[in-house]
User: Fold this.
Amino acid sequence: MIDAMVAGLAALLTPQALLFMFIGVVYGLVIGILPGLGGVVAMALLLPFTYGFETAATLALLLGAHIATIWGDSVTSILFSVPGSAKGLALCFDGYPMTKQGQAKRALAASATGALLGGIIGAIFLALCIPLIRPVILALGPSEYLMMALWGLTVIATFSEGSLMKGLTASVLGVLVAFIGMDVVTATPRFTFGSDFLMEGISFPVAMIGLFAVSEMMKLAIKGTPIVDRSLVKEESTVWQGVCDAFRHWWLVVRSSLLGLWIGVLPGVGASVAGLAAYAQAAQTSKTPERFGKGAVEGVIAPDATMGANEGGGLMPTLAFGIPGGESMAILLVAFIGLGVVPGPDMLTKNLDLVFSMVWIIVIGNILVTLIGLGITPWLARLPSLQANLMVPIVLSVCFVGAYATRGHIEDVLVAAVFGVVGYLMDKYRYSRANFVIGMVLAVMIERNLHISLTLYGRDFLLERPIALAMLAFVVITAALPFIRNWRRRKLAQAAGAQS
Amino acid sequence: MQTTRRKLVLAGAMAPVVLGMPGRVFAQAGSYYKDKVIIINVAGGAAGGHTRYARMLQPYLQKHTGAREVRVVNMPGGGGLKAANHIWRVKPGSPEIFFGNVSTLILAPLAGSAGAQSFDPVKFNYLGRVTSEPRVLSVGGKSAIKTIQDVQKLKRPFVFPSQGTDEDFYTMAVLGDALGFKVKAVTGYEGNADTSLAVIKGDGDGHITGWSESLGPIRSGDKNPILMVTSQPSPDYPQIPIALNIAPASKRATVQAMATILETHRSYIGPPNMDPQAIAAFRAAVTAALNDPDLIAESKKGERPVAPMEGAIQQKRVAELAKSSASLEPILKAAVKEIQ
Amino acid sequence: MSRHAQENLASVLLLAVFAGVIVLCQDFGPRARMIPLPLAVFGIVLTLIQLAWHNFGSPENLQMDMISVHGPDVLTGDAPVVRASGPAWLREVKAYGMVGVLLALIFTVGVMPSAFLFTAGYFIVTRYCSWPLSLAYAAMLTVSLYLLFVVALEMQLYHGLLAPLFQ
Assistant:
């Protein structure tokens, strides 16, 4: 195994592989920053350029690009509250408030370092856990996925402090919007009004571009001030602070990374859920959950660490069963065609050095992303203080082009505009946009897995699936934890007040 | 390299002969796409099987059409229906071609799928099949079911995890009807990775995939193939029975219709109003590309087999199928109703 | 319209949406409506409670503050700063108009030209910079967008409804 680790690293240390990794990372950062486009698009577009090169170089290019999109997504979420794709959503919750408070550098650095540590911890545990992967994949199924999605849903409580009714209403609306389109479970078109476009459903990245980016630009145009007005809020944080934050919260990073790794291992769960679950976990285990959603640095570190580790996990179903676990792995499969490598359980014996090459790419790619990221952070952090009259037309144009580029449908531009207005109104009347989007992300996963569980195991499926039952108990407890803590703290405060 | 190039030229020159076209018409048609941009709308996402094939063929099509660019665009949605509807409506002279499953175009209207009501599969222009992978029904490696006869003897429904109403869902419905066993379809799985795991775990009894998709788990013993849905037994795997040989005489026509539909598989399809010269040029280019030794070598190396069928033959096949597959309609509709 | 009335209007609109969902669900099979139907009913209950609170509850529970233009910024707790001139409602109408204009441009002249026209127009109307500079900045943005999306990402362009006139 150590031989394979060394051979895997040696294969990467060629000038071609290192150059390709660098190109991949820079390209991935740009794609990640563009709204609406994510890692799968980045990899798919690179594919035609990969034929005829070294195996390690090809993988370095593809995986490097994919890894870099994660932080690229985080950048726009933190600076403008514009998630580049579903994965970056959780970063808006605390990253954007940090930017508004003049802590953009700290947030960006914490995010990059979180992703780096997540990537490395994920890769180390991945190497250690290879024997455990098969039993874990076999033990968990639709009922357990359902519980995982429900866990993600508990984040809603974090954002509903103002008016729980409005918070819940927003989530209900989000879920209903996610149901627009062809329901694959029952082959029923729902809420499509006979439109072919709606049959495909509302694109999640497009809805987010509208809800967050377009509506924020409308707000800026109305106010006429930049996102961060430097005459009022000085950028006082430093990159170093953010780096230290990630190391200071090392236990959170470890927990989030392991969560990300295992969510990556399970096909059909997805990185957007991973980000939300990591956020839920960070908020619920925090001693001060009330800071979440208002600029808590832990809310930035946890999702990034999770998504950094998630990538390595995604390789596992392919290695353990010969089944590509997600879209990105399926694209790697296409690259394997040109390289003459057949993925499957054999890879763990015959091509172990290639497996370790991939693990090393994740590690080195993450280091590169972080180094570049930390280097450009001071410049990026200046963007939110640009004048509104400069920012509004540029961001709006980029967003609408991005909305169109997501699927190549002109109707998506209209959807982005409609969601922009809806997002603006929701913000104005204090219906949480975050809750809306959380509902939208998790709706389909919850519905599908509920239907599958009911069909496979019947109405009492929880009794048949003890792991799911245990997970439900865990979900209930962790969801209640912040409320219990708050209640106890209030009681203690009351007691202290009474004593004094 | 020299020899390869010579072979390419030869293959290109042979294409009109293969298609039975006079040389002059080919010369006109052959230059139809010269310096133009061709857009291939692939049914499905960037990581899907269709995309893998479309990308593999892309440089060869460019070479043999003389196009300035062959652009592969993903058009996921509705299991290929989105792209089919799109290509049905493109304006005359559009450089857009659909790449996807012909079987979807035939089966979806038969099953009364929403989204498949606006087009007529016979009126599309079929430009050539790239591959037809045998569809295989496999069960979990540890399952008590070892043969298709075990399935027929089951005292409970056969649990079939599926994404939704795709071709495999319809195939399973036809198999259940023809071979006399009840099917319990569990729809809603995320994709083939998800249904594969359900079968390996034992959550489901078995599922249908293309042969190459199940190859890894079959080799490692995680899955066990018990039936193929093809017209002929596979020469490589003669021990796996084909549905046609097991079905009772009264049901053979139905199974045959289904097998033939499945064999139409991954193809290039043009809009109904396509210029005859464009049709001829594209069909010739597909044939030449699929006979290109470099492509053949690449497909072997990557275990992505090609099985060409010329567009003109496909066109006839689809017309015949549209007539003979009426018997499938009630079976498919009943299966869809069951999951609603 | 008073803020109070606006909140009520928002709730009534939501009630209409949820009621619409319930009506549409009647056409679905039992499985297809299993989640949306109860959820819409739940939405109606939530909105009714919100309406009741809003109209009969104490003012502290109402969450009626305007966006940060008019009230304290919830995230930072700071008093908001407004630099733009004119009454609030007019600025809001202008913001809707801005999105509408960009949308109309995209549908008529296509994606890339509208990015140029909108950006240049915005700079000129808001007097962000001089005419020539506005055009230069807008051209730079459009070229960057073109290089990124069309050249690098192979995006197919949408040319707008007017395109057939020029063909």
